[in-house]
């Protein structure tokens, strides 16, 4: 099968006259959609910044179905796009299937670190480290001693976020109560702000006064409800502090935009291999800007920055959910 | 009773509905500043202009044939099976279990085994709502749609906690072993000298789907059971009077329906992905409703409607790849076709019936 697939190309490439022989980069958004205010939008922001700075242009597609994953990869590769940047762990399998057929094309994948391939740049993030920091902030800002976590789809990646967060909370106040909910079990959970809002209300009724949303587009509903109900929220992936100034405690930054920007800037010469970006590489972090400056006291900032240094130096170890598929301080 | 000639019912009404949907879609595309003619040309050439396009069109069509037939069989017994989505998910689970845990020597045997278990799982998932309907009168529309959510939760649990390979992030099973790989149309057509695109996912299950169309036709119009199903669908009291058991017909029709929906998994799970992913069905169960409506619950109509929807899906993908038409608008275009051919059927039918009636009066 793979042998046959590696032979393929000619017929399909002939059919494709629309965009033949362009060496521009291509960006494949995951099912959540380009404007999810979070993960995919961060990629778009990075790509747009590259386009604005260089005057270049890039191809893009928002996936609609599972079968399109491989289809989009192949069509872009045959059209000569280079590099081809893909978003999300669901691309791992299609990519490991397609990449060997196009050895001259460079592929970049975000949130995947475990596949084989000489022409793939795999970028992972140490989300648990960033989540740990915002967890500390949440515990320090909470008056009730109860904090919430709203995840998107119930997958290990999101438990990974939640686990780092819980460890951060517990490090500040060991008695704190953490309420964790997942929005759903299907990819629709990445884009369900109404459900996010309901979960937030439920957590508020249980006493939560800071809620961390790690849920893609669903998080928009979490942040909105938190602002409406007068409690604090924590955004994710992109800096979401500006969505409700003064109501969003901080955002757990995952610099997908930088990863995409760097890949596009490097173009076809992009370095391949596995790259895990943590606090040390500024791949993750927490957002501090004018919108939330009043919410973060100097003591909070000092405590978090100290923890950041300790994590970077290895003094403080945040347990990753992946290590044994469970979290020491939180049950999901 | 005879308001219209049959050809008008079967050909003219869907055609007019399609033209109306296309016209509205063109206006939508114009409104966002794109060229509708170029868009249509791209859709047609992308979906039908190459064996590559055909391969994707037929792949999607195979899914819709199974789910369309599933809905159609239930329709004949006057039942609305909205649970095709969940039944197909469970069918996928059956396929995955068969392919992963049984050492098949050859794909033909694997196909038989996998489709049997897929059909059994799909039928089992339809059996509970069917039993509730038959014995308790719980409305099947409500129960089947609820069962979609349960199926999705079950699948999620199984994939995340039981079948996900150690160390993998993606909530999906491992890849199926090489012997259960189903031949694609490329591999099937190569011996007879047709060079079909190697990249397209259309595979041997297309033939299974076509065979299913024929079998459903035989069942509904050429067997005693089919007659009973239709009789029950036309009049429950009449059927009861004729000695047809409503419980039996409800159960049998829904089991067949669920089995057909479950068998969709041999195409999308075994034929294309070659592993079970979380969102494998992608709404094909719901598209099946539109396909059955448009196909007038006739297997041949379902066959044609499935190809039309396959075209819309693949054409839509091409639009997404090569134009800046946002994907939401592509969904709008697909939805307009569903709306006009399915839901707004009477809008075209009634004036047309009047027209034919007045024509007939004029002649008399």
Automatic annotation (TrEMBL), chain A:
It comes from the Bacteria. Pfam families: Bmp (PF02608). Residues 1-23 form the signal peptide. It is found in: Cell membrane. Coiled coil: none annotated. InterPro entries: BMP_lipoprotein, Peripla_BP_I, PnrA-like. SUPFAM superfamilies: Periplasmic binding protein-like I. Keywords: Cell membrane, Lipoprotein, Membrane, Signal. GO terms for cellular component: plasma membrane. Its main location: membrane. It is a lipid-anchor. Belongs to the BMP lipoprotein family. This is BMP family ABC transporter substrate-binding protein. It comes from Antarcticimicrobium luteum.
Automatic annotation (TrEMBL), chain B:
GO terms for cellular component: plasma membrane. Keywords: Cell membrane, Membrane, Transmembrane, Transmembrane helix. The chain crosses the membrane at residues 12-33, 53-75, 87-104, 110-128, 140-160, 199-220, 240-264, 302-323, 329-348. GO terms for molecular function: transmembrane transporter activity. It is a multi-pass membrane protein. It is found in: Cell membrane. Its main location: membrane. This is ABC transporter permease. It comes from Antarcticimicrobium luteum.
């Amino acid at each position: 099968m793979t042998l046959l697939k590696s032979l393929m190309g000619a017929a399909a490439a002939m059919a494709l006259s629309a965009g033949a022989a362009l060496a521009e980069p291509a960006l494949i958004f995951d099912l959540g959609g380009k404007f999810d205010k979070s993960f995919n939008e961060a990629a778009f922001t990075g790509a747009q910044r590259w386009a604005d700075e260089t005057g270049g242009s890039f191809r893009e597609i928002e996936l609609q179905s599972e079968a399109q994953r491989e289809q989009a990869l192949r069509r872009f590769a045959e059209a000569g796009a280079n590099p081809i940047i893909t978003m999300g762990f669901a691309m791992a399998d299609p990519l490991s299937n397609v990449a060997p057929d196009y050895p001259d094309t460079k592929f970049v994948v975000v949130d995947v670190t475990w596949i084989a391939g000489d022409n793939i740049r795999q970028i992972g993030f140490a989300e648990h480290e960033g989540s740990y920091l915002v967890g500390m902030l949440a515990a320090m800002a909470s008056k009730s001693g109860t904090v919430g976590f709203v995840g998107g789809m119930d997958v290990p990646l999101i438990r990974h976020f939640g686990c780092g967060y819980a460890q951060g909370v517990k490090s500040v106040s060991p008695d704190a109560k953490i309420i964790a909910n997942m929005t759903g079990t299907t990819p629709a959970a990445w884009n369900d702000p109404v459900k996010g809002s309901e979960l937030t209300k439920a957590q508020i009724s249980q006493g939560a006064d800071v809620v961390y949303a790690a849920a893609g587009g669903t998080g928009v509903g979490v942040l909105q409800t938190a602002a409406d109900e007068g409690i604090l929220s924590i955004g994710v992936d992109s800096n979401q502090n500006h969505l409700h100034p003064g109501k969003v405690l901080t955002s757990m930054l995952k610099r997908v935009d930088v990863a995409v920007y760097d890949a596009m800037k490097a173009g076809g010469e992009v370095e391949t291999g596995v790259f895990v970006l943590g606090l040390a590489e500024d791949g993750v972090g927490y957002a501090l800007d004018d919108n939330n400056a009043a919410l973060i006291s100097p003591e909070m900032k000092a405590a978090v920055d100290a923890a950041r240094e300790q994590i970077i130096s290895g003094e403080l170890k945040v347990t990753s959910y992946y290590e044994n598929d469970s979290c020491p301080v939180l049950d999901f | 009773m005879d308001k219209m000639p049959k050809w008008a019912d079967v050909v003219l009404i869907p055609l007019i509905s399609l033209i109306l949907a296309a016209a509205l879609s063109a206006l939508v595309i114009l409104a966002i500043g794109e060229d509708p003619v170029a868009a249509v040309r791209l859709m047609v050439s992308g979906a039908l202009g190459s064996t590559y396009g055909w391969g994707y069109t037929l792949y999607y069509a195979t899914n819709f044939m199974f789910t369309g037939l599933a809905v159609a069989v239930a329709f004949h017994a006057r039942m609305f099976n909205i649970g095709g989505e969940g039944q197909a998910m469970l069918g996928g689970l059956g396929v995955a279990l068969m392919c992963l845990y049984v050492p098949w020597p050859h794909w033909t045997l694997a196909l038989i085994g996998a489709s049997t278990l897929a059909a059994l799982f799909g039928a089992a998932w339809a059996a509970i709502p069917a039993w509730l309907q038959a014995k308790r009168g719980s409305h099947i529309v409500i129960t089947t749609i609820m069962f979609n959510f349960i199926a999705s939760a079950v699948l999620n649990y199984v994939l995340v906690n039981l079948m996900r390979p150690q160390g993998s992030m993606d909530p999906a099973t491992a890849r199926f072993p090489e012997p259960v790989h189903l031949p694609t149309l490329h591999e099937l057509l190569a011996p007879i000298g047709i060079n079909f695109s190697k990249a397209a996912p259309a595979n041997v299950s297309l033939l299974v789907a076509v065979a299913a169309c024929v079998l459903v036709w035989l069942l509904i119009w050429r067997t005693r059971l089919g007659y009973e199903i239709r009789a029950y669908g036309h009049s429950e009291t009449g059927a009861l009077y004729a000695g047809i058991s409503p419980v039996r017909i409800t159960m049998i029709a829904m089991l067949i329906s669920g089995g057909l929906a479950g068998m969709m998994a041999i195409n999308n799970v075994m034929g294309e992905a070659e592993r079970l992913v979380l969102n494998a069905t992608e709404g094909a169960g719901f598209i099946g409703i539109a396909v059955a409506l448009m196909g007038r619950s006739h297997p041949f109509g379902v066959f044609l409607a499935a190809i039309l929807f396959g075209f819309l899906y693949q054409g839509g993908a091409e639009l997404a790849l090569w134009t800046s038409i946002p994907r939401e608008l592509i969904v709008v275009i697909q939805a307009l076709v569903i709306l006009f051919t399915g839901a707004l059927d009477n809008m075209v039918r009634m004036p047309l019936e009047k027209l034919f009636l007045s024509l007939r009066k004029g002649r008399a």
